[in-house]
TrEMBL record:
PANTHER family: HTH-TYPE TRANSCRIPTIONAL ACTIVATOR RHAS, HTH-TYPE TRANSCRIPTIONAL ACTIVATOR RHAS-RELATED. This is AraC family transcriptional regulator. The keyword Transcription applies. Residues 149-248 form the HTH araC/xylS-type domain. Keywords: DNA-binding, Transcription, Transcription regulation. GO terms for molecular function: DNA-binding transcription factor activity; sequence-specific DNA binding. It comes from the Bacteria. Pfam families: DUF6597, HTH_18. It comes from Duncaniella freteri. The keyword Transcription regulation applies.
Length: 260
């Protein structure tokens, strides 16, 4: 896998891009990472058994609250743009709440300009040039949006203090609780309470990735009420208890790790 950093003007909105080419079949367990993605498959798309479907050649992957396996038949070449939790809607002119817990075809949102960009990427042989094509499009879509700024600020608070109440987040965004919940859901793709579960889970993965093995300490650090709550939530989002996951694979938090 090759990681590419976005150009400077896109860095507040796009976390990173990754490119993967493989001629070996594989099956990998994935977890909710808290960030939507736009995916371009230049060869055979990935199959997701939990959804009993293959990704579209051009896929938009929304916020999810379940673990899933991704499977390749050994003919894989894909380019992926990973966005911050609250920014993808600006670029696709569709609220992320429309594809909650879904992997949808990018063609289904009927965005002519985006469809043309996808076709240009599929027609381009050099993947670096493909990312340049995508970045030119994304840069052209940047515009100041108050709700994106408000929600982004509160997500920063959640990442630092996952236990922060929805009421406190709403107050910091200068919105009423109900209005904030609606704006958050439209901007991020799930409600703030559910998103906080993803943040806690990813922060726990990050602690384990760094070698922490005191589960009571992880629970306290990540905002869980107790160790039992932590283990229950962890299993819901990964399919494994923390101890079992360590035996299955090396813990890795996408949300709390800066890819290089």
């Amino acid at each position: 896998m090759r990681i590419c950093q976005p150009r400077e003007e896109l860095r507040p909105y796009v976390r990173y891009y990754w490119v993967l080419e493989s001629d070996e079949p594989f099956s990998i367990l994935t977890f909710p990472i808290g960030c939507p993605q736009i995916i371009f498959h230049k060869k055979t798309p990935l199959y997701i058994p939990e959804l009993d479907k293959s990704q579209s050649q051009f896929t938009i992957s929304g916020q999810v609250n379940f673990p899933a396996h991704i499977q390749s038949d050994g003919s894989l070449e894909m380019i992926v743009a990973v966005f911050y939790p609250h920014t993808v809607g600006m670029f696709i002119d569709t609220p992320p709440s429309a594809f909650y817990n879904l992997e949808i075809s990018g063609y289904d949102i009927e965005n002519r300009q985006l469809n043309e960009i996808a076709q240009r990427i599929f027609d381009c042989e050099n993947n670096k040039d493909c990312i340049d094509i995508l970045e030119d499009f994304l840069t052209s879509k940047i515009r100041p949006v108050l709700n994106i700024s408000r929600v982004g600020s509160t997500i920063g608070t959640l990442l630092s203090v996952p236990l922060t109440s929805v009421k406190a987040l709403a107050a910091s965004a200068c919105l009423g609780k109900r209005q904030y919940e609606r704006v958050f859901r439209e901007t991020v793709g799930m409600n703030p309470k559910e998103y906080a579960r993803i943040v806690k889970f990813q922060k726990a993965l990050w602690q384990m990735q760094r070698g922490e093995s005191n589960y009571a300490g992880i629970a306290a650090e990540c905002g869980y009420s107790d160790q039992s709550h932590f283990i229950r939530n962890f299993k819901e989002l990964s399919g494994y208890t923390p101890e079992a996951l360590i035996k299955y694979c090396a813990p890795y938090s996408d949300l709390f790790t800066a890819p290089a």
